[in-house]
Design brief:
By secondary structure, this protein is an alpha/beta fold. Helix content is 42%, strand content 15%. It has a domain of 212 residues: NAD(P)-binding Rossmann-like Domain (Rossmann fold, 3-Layer(aba) Sandwich). It is globular, with a radius of gyration of 19 Å.
Length: 317
């Protein structure tokens, strides 16, 4: 393991979130000096709050921006204005303050949702501006993509070392299992567990099941983010993913097989009145391998097993 993070001061926004907790834990393991302020300590929606916090509490060498308003299709559809405004304002305030404060490096974690709806699989970084994102999460995807433009503009004008990463669909232990805001994997896990515990014979999932995703286990995502933080210093956006395309239907079968060992559930109902979201997603991961040697090593079945085990043990929503 590299000694790059030893005694480096690293500020992580969104450090109490799903991804953020894993990033903070790994940074501490690598003996970084980590600061992950809460919302009450540092309100990212207010530019003065960020500036005052850094000046009075903690001046970082590196800032990793993970804070975001996130959720699945249902949450994106319910609050598209909030997803656009909050994500854009938080990110823009973080970058502007990093510029004013002279922070040496800023790592911005964007989203696969920024890609056009009908991007050819596997998605290449050069495809990013070839069309409009899928409608159900377009406000979120556009807000994040705007931060790429800002980061590149600040690099050109001010020489800021800001990099932009686009991870695939993340999942893993500690994920969000809330009914109205969870993404597809935690939603399916929770629904299967509840169906089995209540003795149901059938279960319903959203959409057709035919949509595909590139599912990135959270520990792999953390490894990619930290490798990029250490080794990547260019302005072009870069994918973080597995390069493996998996259908929602196949994921549902794996989850059900692992949870319903007695084969109590005999029927899966797909609800076509609910949206699939983007039809296909899979990332071309050649650049992340070339630029900083990142390879996602966790296979989907292994990752699902660990996520299910965590949920069953913790019993959290």
């Amino acid at each position: 393991m590299s000694e790059f993070f030893y005694n480096r001061q690293v500020m992580v926004t969104g450090g109490s979130g799903f991804l953020g907790r894993h990033v903070v834990d790994e940074l501490k393991y690598r003996r970084a000096i980590v600061c992950a302020p809460t919302h009450s300590e540092c309100d990212l929606m207010r530019q003065d709050s960020i500036y005052n916090y850094v000046h009075s509490r903690f001046f970082p060498d590196i800032l990793i921006h993970l804070a975001a308003k996130v959720g699945g299709i249902q949450a994106n559809q319910a609050k598209p204005g909030e997803f656009l405004y909050n994500n854009m304002m938080m990110g823009m305030n973080v970058l502007e303050n990093a510029r004013m404060l002279g922070i040496r490096k800023v790592v911005i974690v964007g989203t696969v949702c920024s890609y056009p709806k009908f991007t050819k699989v596997p998605f290449k970084e050069s495809d990013l501006w070839n069309g409009f994102p899928e409608e159900t999460n377009a406000p979120y995807g556009i807000a994040k993509k705007a931060l790429l433009v800002q980061a590149q503009a600040y690099r050109e004008q001010y020489g800021m070392n800001s990099v932009f990463l686009m991870p695939a669909n993340m999942y893993g232990p500690g994920d969000n299992f809330q009914d109205n805001t969870s993404h597809v994997i935690p939603a399916m896990i929770k629904r299967c567990c509840l169906a089995v515990s209540s003795g149901k014979k059938e279960i319903e999932f959203w959409g057709s099941g035919q949509a595909t995703r590139d599912f990135l286990y959270v520990s792999d995502a953390v490894e990619g983010i930290l490798k990029a933080t250490e080794l990547y210093n260019e302005g072009d956006p870069i994918n973080l993913g597995t390069g493996v395309e998996t259908s929602i239907h196949d994921v549902s079968q794996t989850i059900l097989h692992k949870i319903d060992e007695s084969q109590q559930i005999t029927s899966i109902i797909w609800n076509p009145l609910k949206p699939d979201g983007q039809p296909r997603r899979c990332l071309n991961v050649s650049l992340s391998m070339e630029k900083f040697g990142f390879i996602a090593r966790t296979k989907i079945e292994e990752g699902l097993t660990k996520t299910i085990d965590w949920y069953v043990k913790n019993g959290k929503d």
